Amino acid sequence: MCRVHATVRGLLGEIVAGAQDVAVVDMEAGLEHLSRGTVRHVDTVLAVLEPYYRSLETGARVVELARELGIARVLVVVNKVRDDADRRALEEFCRGRALPLAAVIPHDPCVLDADRAGGSLLDQAPESPSVTAIRDLAEQLVGASGISPREGA
Amino acid sequence: MRIAVAGKGGSGKTTLAATLARLFARQGHSVLAVDGDSNPNLGVSLGLAAAEAASWPTLPKDLLVELAQPDGTRNTGLSMAVADIADRYGVVAPDGVRLLVMGRVAHAGAG
To answer: Residue A55 is part of a domain; what is its CATH number?
Structure first.
């Protein structure tokens, strides 16, 4: 690993460690950042998966690594779920591997539309099925963490 | 609450991270969104204009420093508080989310 990359990761860890209130980190794709301990200062890891076998297997590995790092909450979010058959299969996989399934986000053409328009999903499709599912997840995360909004907000 | 959103490219992790960040901010939280991806696009998913991306501040490498401890040992830390880093280098996104783009450090110098 090059030195600059190591610096980025060190910096990321320190910034997350010192963040007030809420920090949300969009991690680099892949598993390296987890195995190298960059995320040791986070209290929650969301492993975002797709409902097919290889993706779920990767997710199982993410969960395992995050647990090894001692992260308090390691949760699975399955995205782009097309139908009940998808849902049943992923639920069965998660049960069998003891993966904590926190959210199932439906396949939603609004996501691609927002991406194509180069903007935010929340602005472009605030009532879409995917945003509704993410809103439920946000409430679940806040509820479980016990944090409250800052005064006067 | 400090959340890392992990996943393969194309899994939708960036859209999820951006949407969560803005929903937390709407609930009244002070939210720092950190783009740790080497191919940064969290800002666009937050609702910032892609055309502006070139003007977003770059995080200097020297924010990470070695600090001498009273007992003679050394460890790494930040040369300024995270709140100050967010003020100085953060981009203000919709709903008041502060965005820091980590990937830009890697482009700031050779190494």
So the answer is: 3.40.50.300
